[in-house]
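Much of the work behind modern protein science is quiet bookkeeping, done one molecule at a time. The fold becomes a row of whole numbers, each drawn from a learned catalogue of backbone shapes. The protein below has been through that process, and both of its lines are reproduced in full.
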Amino acid sequence: MGSLGIGTTAPTYSLDVQGTTAISGINSQAGYNINIVAAPPSPTYTLNAGGNVDVGVHYYFVTYTTAIGETNTGSTLTATTTSGNQTVNLTIPT
């Protein structure tokens, strides 16, 4: 059986792809599988009286680690604290 080359005239392997590719995942018979993990939903927040968070703008990022990898960062949550409202309560979706 011959070799198939994409982007090469001298393939080294049964399937030899040279160049940039776009795929949604890789599954192999050896059990090495790579799949895209969706970004998590954005967290929400409430501000409450008291607390010790500095007054100003604060940014929160959430990623999840699963059996098949770490997700991309979801949307950035921006919370602005004011004097007297310096407790940030995050709700992180699961």
